Amino acid sequence: MKIRNFRLLCALACSAWAVTLVGCNGAKDGDATDGQITLRLWATPNTSKPKEDLEKVVELFEAKHPGIKVQVEILDWGAAWTKITTAATSGAGPDVVQIGSSWAGSITDIGSLMSVSDVLDSAKKDLKTDSPFVRAAYVYMKPIYSDSVTSLPWLVDVRPLFYRKDVWQKAGVDIHEATTSWDRYFAALDKIKAAGVLSDGQKVEAIGIAGKNDWNVVHNFYPWIISAGGGVVNALGDSVLLDDEKSVQGVLAYLKLIRSGLSPKAYLEKTTAQVSAEFDQGRIATWQEASTKLVYLERPQEQGGAGNSVAAKNYGTALPPVGPAGRKLFVGGSQLAIFKSTSHPKEAKELLRFLTTDTTAVMRYCRLSGMAPALRKVFDSPYYSSNENRQLFKQLADDGVPYPAVPYWGEVETSILNTRFGNIIDIASEVNGKYDEAKVRAELKAAANQIRELIRDQLEKKPQYAAKIRAFRGR
Amino acid sequence: MAYWFLAPTVLGMAFVHVLPIVQGIWLSFLAARKSNLQLYLDAPLPDNGLFGNYKDVLFNSSSALHAGMADAVRNTFWYALLVTLGTSVFGLMGALLLHRAFRGRSLARTLLLFPWVVPTYVVGLLWGFMWQQDTGIVNIVLHDWLHLISYRPVWLLGPNTLWAIIIPTIWRFWPYSMLLLLAGLQNIPHEVYEAADLDGATVWQKFRRITMPLLSPVWSVLLLNGLIFNVYSFNIVIMMFGNGAGFPGRYGDLLMTAIFRNSFQMWDFGHGAAMSVLLMLGMIALVVVWYRIFRNDLTNE
Q1: In this structure, CATH architecture of domain A32-158+331-401
Q2: Which residues 49-88 on chain A approach chain B with CB closer than 8 angstroms?
C-alpha cells in the first residue's frame, strides 16, 4: 500500500510539473521561420484604432522588405511604463518599442537600449541635412548621461490654443493680437467673460482649465513657468529652479485664470477629456490641448468625432500667449528605440529608420493620429503648410522647451510635481479656506526641496553623472 | 497520509503568501530602485544604514512618501472607521428587513445585492462623474430636485473628498455585510424570541439583549474584516481620480494610493516595501487588540 501511494504521488507530482512547464512556453521574440523574420513592435494607443492604424503604416515597410513581418502590439498608457521597464530589465521584450519622450532618460539609464547613432548618421546623409528632426526632440535622442543616441524621435505632442472664432469676434477681440503678451491675453479673456456671449443658448466661458485628475497637470503649469523665465530644473538637471521668483510668478499667472473666474472652478474637478468635451459642446471659448484634437474635430460624429458640433464649425488654432521671457511652449511626444535583447538588430534598425525618417510613413501616421511629426520635412506637405489650423504646428514643435532628459524626471513629475501642483489647485479652488499666496509659495518651496534631495541622492549614487555634468559645464 | 494531502495547500500558501512577504520584508532593507532594478534582491543597503528606508519614510521631510504620510494616515483612519461602521449599520438594517417574510422578498434581496456585483473600478469611475459639482447627479438631486441644500457643494476637491470616497465604498460593500448578518440572524433560534415574548420584552429589548449578542460572532468578524480591507483600499480611489494619473488630494489620498504613487509607480521598491511593512505591523497590532476584545464573542455560547 505504501509503495502504491508513493508511485501515485510521484505520478501526481510529475503531472503538476508538466502542467507548469507547458505554461512557461519560452517562444523567443522575433522568431525566424521559413526564412521570414518577425519583428515585434510595441506601441501605445496613438489613435482611436491603434493596432489597425499602425498596421497601415507598417504594411508600407513590409512591402519594401518582403522577408520581414512586423507584429504590432499595443500597450495601454497606464500599463506601458511597467511593461517597458519590465522588458528592459528582464530582456524579454520586443525588438522596437515606442517610449514617451520624458521616459527616454530613465529607460536609457537602465542600460537596455541599443545605440542607434549609426541610424541617425545615415538618416542625416540620406535626407541631406544635419538636423532632420525638430529641435525640441534632440534632447531625448541622447539623454544627458548617455554616450550615444538611444532612440529617434517619432511623434511630437504640440499644444496649440483652440478657440471659438465666432465668440472671440462677438467679444470684439483678436486672438493673435491678444496672445502677444500675458496682459493682453488676460484683458481679452476678461472682455469675453464680460460680453456674456451665448452659443446655442448656453453661456460660453472665456477659457477652460482642467483639474488635477490626469497626467496633464504638470504639462499645464509648465508653459507658464518657463514663459515667466523660470523652470523646474535646469537643462542639465542638476539645479532646481522651481522656487525661483520667476517660476513662482509663472505659477501665480496660471492660477489667475482660475481665481479671476475666467475658468469655472467646477472644471477643477474634471479631467482634460471632460473639459475638452465642454469645448466640443460649445461651452468654452478658449482651450489648450494636444494637436490630436484637430483629428477629432474634423471627424464626423458617426465616426466617433465631433465634426458636426458647433465648436467644430467655428474653431481656429493659435499660438499660446507670450510671457515675460518670450513664448515658451510645452512639447512632448514619443521616441522609437530598440532593445539590446533583439535577435535581429539589423532588421530592427531598418524598421526604426523607416518609421522615423520615411516621409510617407510618418505623414500617414500623423494624419491618422493627429500628432505632429518629429521629421521636419513632413511639415513641408500642404497638409500642414496650406492648412490654417496646422500651419503653426512646426513653430510649436521647433519652439517647444522639452523637459530635461534625466533618469529621475519620472520621480520629479509623478511623485513630486503632480502632488504639489495638485495641492496648489486645491488652494486656488478655495474649497478649504480663502486663497493664500503664501501657501502656494510654501508648496513650491517644499517641491523644490524634495527635488534637490532627489538630485543629490541621484548624483551621489552615480558619480559618473556628476562627472558628465562637469564636462558639459567645461565646454 | 494526511500530511501528503495537506502538502499542496501548504506549498501553495508558501509560494503565494509566505515567500512574497519574506521577500517584501527583505526588500524593505535594501536600496532597491529603478537604477538597480536588475539586482532586485541583491540591491545594496541604503546609504543611511540598514533601516535607512524606514528612517526616510518616517522622518525624512524630503521624501515624497513621508511628505504626504500624515494626510494619508489621517484619511485612512477615518475612511476605514466610517466605511466599516457604515457597511455594518446598513448591512444590519438590510438584514433585519430581509429576515421578515413579505411578498417580493426575493426580488428585494436581488435588488439590494446590486451594488455588490458592480466592479470596484466601475464604482470609482461612475461616482467620479456623479460627484461633479455642475453636472453630477448627486448635486442635481440634493439641490435642484429635493432642495435639501442651498448651494452645490464641490465634492472632489478639499475636505469633501473624504466623503466622496467613503460614500461609494459603503454603497459598494454594504450588501456583503447584509448577507453575513442575514445568515447570522437566520441561525438564531426562534425559541429564544418566543421566550422573550413570554417575559414581555419589547422590540428594542429583544434587539439589544438577544439579536446583537447572538450576532456577535458575525459582526466581530465583519469589524475586523472591514477594518483590514478598508485600510488596504485602493481601487475606488485610484479610479475616481484619473486611474492612477491624478492625485486624489490631501483629503482623498489613502495609504495604499500614496504608497503606490510615490514608490511602486516609480519602481522605488525599497521605500515602498518599508512603508508596506510598517502598515503590516500596524495591522497585526490591530488584530491582536481585536482578538483581546472580541475573543469571547467569537461564539455565541
Answers
A1: 3-Layer(aba) Sandwich (3.40)
A2: 78, 81, 85, 88
